[in-house]
Structures are given as C-alpha cells and as structure tokens.
Amino acid sequence: MSKSILQRRAEIQGLATAILLPSVGVFSGSIGSQVGNVGPLTSVVGIGLFQRTVLTLQRAGIRQLIVLSGSEEEQLKQTLGKGPRVTIPVRWMPIREFPLEDPRTWEALAAEVHGFALVVSVNSVFSRGLIERLRRDVQEGEAIIVSQASQGQVDQLMVEGVRLKIGSNSDKRMSGRSAIFVPPRFDDPALRVAELVVVPASLMSTTGQAAGEKGSPPIRQWLERAAADGRMRVVSAEEKPGNWYQPVQTVSDVQTAEKKLFNSLKGEYEGFVDRYFNRKVSRWFTRLFLAMGWRT
Questions:
Q1: Residue 20 is part of a domain; what is its CATH number?
Q2: Predicted local confidence at residue 248, as pLDDT
Q3: In this predicted structure, which of 9-13, 163-167, 192-196 has the lowest mean pLDDT?
Q4: Looking at the 3D structure of the chain, how many domains does it have?
Q5: Is residue 27, in this structure, part of any structural domain at all?
Q6: Which residue, 60, 72, 165, 187, could crosslink 131 as a Cys pair with Cβ 3.0–4.6 Å?
Q7: Which whole number is the average pLDDT over 219-226?
Q8: Average pLDDT of 221-241?
Q9: What secondary structure, in 3-state letters, does the chain show?
Q10: Is residue 289 part of a domain?
Q11: 202 lies in which domain range?
C-alpha cells in the first residue's frame, strides 16, 4: 500500500472534517437574530466571520467541510468566491431538509465522518494553532470541549470533579480502587465553554437519541453522555501562545476580536525594531489597505 494512501486513511480516521453552523450557535440560539447583533457576514479585519472561519479551518488542516445552512446559503456561497481561495470541498446541507434537532441528520453526518468531527459556529474568531492542537490531541472515543478559562482554572475544576466522584462513592468500598475521572459539567459557567467542540462519530451516531429542541443541534446531549462515561476532556484555549478563541456576538466583540487578531501577528523572534517600529507601521498600513478594499 502506498504511503499517500496510508496518510489519507490516517487523516480520515483523525480530525479532518468540520461541521459548520452559520445560523445557530453550538450551545446558544440563533446567530444575528436580534437587531444590533453580528451575523455570519459581519466583517472582522476585512473578512466576514463565515469566510474567516472556513479559511482558518482550511489552513489548520481540515480536509472537508459540511455546512448546515439556512436561508443565508446563497449569500454565504458568494462570499467563498471572493478573496483567498477555498480549496477544500464544501458540502451544503440545508436545514429545511436536514433539521438540526433530528437525530437522523446526525446519523447521516456520522456516516461521512469516520473519525472525529469539529462542530463549530461562526460567532467567533479563533487561531489556526488552536485547531491544529485539537487535531493532534484527539483520542479514540473521546469528546473535547474548549474552555476560555486559564489552564489553572480548568485544572482546579477537574480536581473538584474527581473529589465529587470520590465523595459520592465513599460508601461503596472505594478504598484501594483508583478513582474514575469525571470532568466538570461542560456547561459550568466557570469554564466559559467555546462554541467549538470535537466529537467522535460514534457519539453522533448513537442509536435511540431523542429529538432535541427545535432548531438546535443535540450537542448538549452528546456531551452529557460523554461526561457521564468519563470520555470528555477540557482543553484551555489560553494554555499556549497562538491557541486562542474569541467569541464575536456583539459590535464591541468585533473590536476585541480585531485587536486579538492584530496582536497574534507577533513573531516568536521579534527584535527591538520589529516590536517598536515595523509592527506599528505594518498594522497602520493593514488597516488602510482593508479600508480601501484591498485583499491579499
């Protein structure tokens, strides 16, 4: 068997597929449904949120993209034809035919994933490095959630989860046995969970799933099941430089995301001139070119 075929098989079995939700959040409600809120076409540093998400995933090594689209589908297709080229295959599945709450929709998707799927909404901006890290860290049968909390906070919550598990079993002769690791609830406010999760195809295709809330994916159900089985891991988006996540749900969030994007341009080996001259000048020119409608 040739090396390229082996590489392709390993890629498919890992995290190579992303399922994109442009009109709803992974956990929250509709995106851009309220006046003044941002939507999938909202520009962040000259590129719409939807297009930016697709390009970031492509650069991070995602090899196929499935879009569960609503009425905005035609507009989104047009945006992908502008600016930097999208080279990965994009499959469009209209939610009027594939309802998000219907388990059969996710059964059909699971049959195409074969390994893991990254389920992500477009109400955020995140780094290429974060997706690359998730692709490296997948483990068989395990779901991953991304936390905006610091690694120290995540570790503390995990320790508390283990303590709770030990305490609840103290009357069942637990002495001498290793404790079963149970991570904290994924919706714990202290975790500040990102609208971006990694799920194994086996979790998506579990039979007997009940229909979810109308218009919402059943991701909460999957993660609750994974947490109960000890198959859920929490990853901090702030653990390492270059692994960041920024929600973009309001106009003020857009400004925060743009600042974070510009700050992320910092190189690992910057010198004095780079830091205090070249960087400031390049940012000014970048903003000017974007205002003039120029793209790279």
A1: 3.90.550.10
A2: 92
A3: 163-167
A4: 1
A5: yes
A6: 60
A7: 87
A8: 84
A9: CCHHHHHHHHHHHCEEEEEEECCECCCCCECCCCCCCCCCCCEECCEEHHHHHHHHHHHCCCCEEEEEECCCHHHHHHHHCCCCCCCCCEEEEECCCCCCCCHHHHHHHHHHHCCEEEEEECCEEECHHHHHHHHHHCCCCCEEEEECCCHHHHHHHHHHHHHHHHHHCCCCCCCCCCCCCCCCCCCCHHHCEEEEEEEEHHHHCCCCCCCCCCCCCCHHHHHHHHHHCCCEEEEECCCCCCCCEEECCCHHHHHHHHHHHHHCCCCCCCCHHHHHHHHHHHHHHHHHHHHCCCCC
A10: no
A11: 3-153+181-249
Stronger pLDDT, 23 or 167, i.e. the higher one: 23
Backbone angles phi, psi at 264, to 5 degrees: -70, -10
User: Is residue 206 domain-resident?
Assistant: yes
Q: Write 172-180 long-range contacts (CB < 8 A, 24+).
A: 180/230
In total, the chain counts a number of residues equal to 296
Q: What CA–CA distance (Å, rounded) separates 85 from 93? A: 21
Asked if residue 273 has pLDDT above 90, the reply is: no
Token output for 116: 């893991």
Residues 49/96, Cβ–Cβ less than 8 Å = no
Confidence of residue 190 (pLDDT cuts 50, 70, 90): confident
Q: State the Cα–Cα distance between residues 223 and 220, nearest whole angstrom.
A: 5
Query: What is the distance between the alpha carbons of residues 186 and 191, in angstroms, rounded to a whole number?
Result: 7
In a domain, 296, yes or no: no
